[in-house]
UniProtKB/TrEMBL annotation:
Protein name, as recorded: Endonuclease/exonuclease/phosphatase domain-containing protein
InterPro entries: Endo/exonu/phosph_ase_sf
Amino acid sequence: MPDFIEGIDILPERNVVDFTNNSYGDIFCEFLSNVNCCILNGRNFLSNDFTFISTRGTSVVDYCIVPYEYLNKFVDFEVIRAQSLVNSTFTTGAYDPKHIPDHSLICWTFNTLVYDDQIMVRHAQSTDNETTEHVKFDTRNVPNDWLTDVEVVSKLNQLILDLEHSENNQLEIDNKYDELVNIIQDEMNSKLDKRKVYCADGISNKRRKMKKPWWNDNLTVLWNEVCAAERIWRKNPNRNERKSARHVFVKTRKTFDKKLPTSEKTILVS
């Protein structure tokens, strides 16, 4: 039984080494089809082999499961038998065969973007003095003809129809979601009152400094780094990049928190 819906999901064929079928395997493959995940074993591989080898027989019981849309990021899949690992480490006969595990080692390479913390912090610092423009909509007065125009209803119906006949993968769903956002955004621009709001990321923070005598220029710089790192984290649409951005945000926030008590104590002592 395949681990995807044939004719709908477009996935490379899997190199199968274990052709024994059972009810658990069918349930497992059906589950993978329902959650849009697939088996990496036998795909994008350097070597494919049994993952369980003993005197009782051989089979594939250990798997790497990946989402459909990220399959191309997992490459160089490899199954290494425990006996091969022992032979590459010890001289032949130096290790008692009964102590060799009967499960093989599975490994692969995962390609992803990596961001340097210092680069992201410098980028955050470069945005401190910028003034950003936002459009604020008055959502308290939504008109009665909201999303009722013939053209808008037609677009929504077409979107639903396209979604029902799509490939049902995460990328396609994301694209349809973007289309829905654009439809709603156009409706907001045409029917809701709005005004422009300008947000300046100043470096002085005079109001805060006047009310808190322990506030200093060093805290101002650290606080601006925290704010900038948080903006980068929250506004990044890429899930993987957001994880790295959140790591930078947490790191800068901890640095600020460590300096804050020190500044308060300095004022109290003086």
